[in-house]
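Entry 14. Ran structure prediction on the chain below.
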Amino acid sequence: MAATSSYDRLKELKEFDESKIGVKGLSDSGIITIPDFFKHPPQTPPDLKSKSSQGNTNIPVIDLSNVSSPDHRQEIVNQIKEAAKSWGFFQVINHGVPIPVLEETIRAIKAFHEKPHEIKSKYYKREESQGVMYASNNDLYRAEVACWHDSLQAWMGPKPLDPEDLPAVCRKEMVTWDLSATKVAETVMGLLSEGLGLEEGKFKDLTFSDARVLVGHIYPHCPQPDLTMGITSHTDPGVVTLLLQNQIPGLQVMHGDEWVNIKPVHGGVIINVGDFLQIVSNGEYKSVQHRVLANSCKEPRISVVEFFNLSKWKGDGYFGPLPELLSAEKPPIYRDFSAQEFLEIFYTKGLDSTSLIDKITINHD
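Output, structure tokens:
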């Protein structure tokens, strides 16, 4: 019996994938029940409501307006260090990118997702590791269950992308945002590096901002939001991630043992620590679980995410905790790992809560 149901599931998945309509197409069609392959088992989101923080708890907000001032920089370093240690997530304001640029970026991604099927479907494919790809659920065939979002993804570096490969409706805005986001990411990486007692330029020298993937998600209205997720709980694999979003709620971060609703600050950029940074910092900075609830609002949730990671592995093709941070008192808590291990754990399974960190932690018992 199980074989039949799994075969039917694969058939349904393929029909959905080959239709190229995405969840936006399903939502627009006026369906009132979602397909079975989107339905999460009751135990996977057991706490959708129960632990979500109802109070005003929010991730730290850090003002970068005095980042170049010798009198104020150390204070900002301390704030970012504390946020990266205790939360793994923070928002930055006065980061140097004009608010209209943020708004235009979100508007352009929304405009792409609202284009007719015949325009979007030209970009629909499953080549995750290069170029431009539009699809619903990158891990559609690897994950145990699908989630309620579609994405436009573009590799912006290290190999420069030909802007002509991007959809015309969001081409200029994606190129502009990539430049702006990279500046913000490098500023923040400098502060994070100093927070570890290293030189400001250390992470840039290690190519930590060179591999860049820009992803524009849409979370359309879901008719049965309690039965599925927008994106399942996961950590990000890279160094840091920058996130812009509109005002529709849904993003939650695990803090302690509680899911906290993230409220975006107007004009702010949300930044989080990835697994790679937790490892190279030898556990000083934390990569934390986060997820997006399925959208119950009529208005779609739009998020623009840029993932930053290194482009040049060390000579022997390995990486691990930075040697400058290790001592007899602070031995490595992670073993070195290869580029192949890093990629395999991300591309061979669905997005979930297990990560490279689990695999390479050294047991000191």
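The two ends are 45 Å apart (CA to CA). Will compare against last week's run tomorrow.
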